[in-house]
User: Fold FGGY-family carbohydrate kinase from Vreelandella janggokensis.
Amino acid sequence: METVIGIDIGTQSTKALVLDGKGQILAEHSRGYRVDTPHPLWAEQWADVWWEAVLDCLRDCLADQRINPQHVKGLCVSSLYGGSGIPVDADIRPVYPCLIWMDRRAEAQVQWVKAHVDLSRLGDITGNGVDSYYGFTKMMWLKAERPEVWEQTCYLLPPNSYINYRLSGEIAIDHSSAGNIGGIYDLEKRAWSPEMLDALGLDRDKLPDRLVDSGATVGGLVPSLAESLGLQAGIPVVAGGVDAAMATLAAGATRPGNHVAMIGTSMCWGVINRRVDARQGLISMPHVLNGDQDLYTFGGALTAGASVSWYVDTFCGEDKAAAGESGSAFERLEPPARELPPGANGLLFLPYLMGERSPVWDAHASAGFIGLSLYHQRHHLYRAVLEGVTFALRHNIEAGSQQGVTLDDHLIVVGGATQSDLWMQIIADVTRMPVYTYRESVEAALGAGLLAGQACGLLDLAQPLQHGTLVERATPCESAACRYDELFKLYCQLYPTLKPIMHQLNTRHTQSE
Assistant:
């Protein structure tokens, strides 16, 4: 049986899986690791940690009795957004950790860009804005704060590009990863932007010349590695791309208008389109499928499921204790929360527990419950948290609807949030869209496997696949949707109203430390 391998390098773990010609998962394995946070707001990882995790996952998958390594036709790598990229020297050895998407150390560079660069021009060229999330500001930080590292650096490689080099010996960057760097990539020309590189003071020679589609072959698997793994030498190593787009592909997003919400620790909503407006505050890059014409535009909340976990861990010890080992606090909270009306009897929650990404883009934004009274109990606040994260989802969807693409009339949701029937109903009511989920686990590694399958002729992504089963989970209730329309308007007023106070509190808190 011919197979392909999909690999996803995540923030907290790497996963590999093996697919057959129908897109069915035959074997999968993962390995976890940690993010290094040596200072507040810093988040970095060493590339060799990822490489060792990739090798471990490959070995475990290929050891499965159902898999014949000699029948593997190719592999593809998806990866977390690598921010700055991995600084490597002339021998392609990492000389500094990768400043990943979570890293916020480049705030001074953000302020410099806002003061010295034409932001309208930057948005027109790149389809993106300026924030310490973006890789180009992290590159600027490396150049300013680590000049000795900058001097040693030959290339700055996204995580999947580095792993592809270790697999094939070839250097290339896929267009989705290049576009997600922001700031220095011309979204219309699908090329690096000399104009913006000059404006930002970044070196063109530290970016590889070879830019490829996510479904293109970077090179063949090197013989020494093939021998150690039992694979055939020279099988295609497919470029891959950014994990959010890969997971969206795995969920079936293949044409303009398809949109998917991924709700786990954070929330990411993405839509396939063909034109962007950077003024809407979303992030855009070429899609991992049909990337020569289709774009992937997405927005996200930093703390989605993390808001729920924080609330339960902080305030619901009694529920956790009562649930014991046989249950969970969520099982105790959901039934009474389900009986509450929309709005949890007059409560709103802002889910900005770590600042916020799109469309707010404010590292100093903070969270809060609005409308609290002595009447409210734990299940009221629990429902308010679910609703607040869902309002953040709608905030991004409404920004995306301004991009000129007609969204599908239903929403696909993947991730840990799908375990909650209550949350699925809230999402349907808030967005006014039927909500669908998959019975199976749909993740970025699956998207990578699908791309590998297409590149090797094993799968045709233009045809319906059997890799997942969509299930309708919730349909909008008109009365609830009308109430949520009113509450969403109030939600959107809260941030601009409270922003000055949030910033004053943040400044005073920082100064007191």
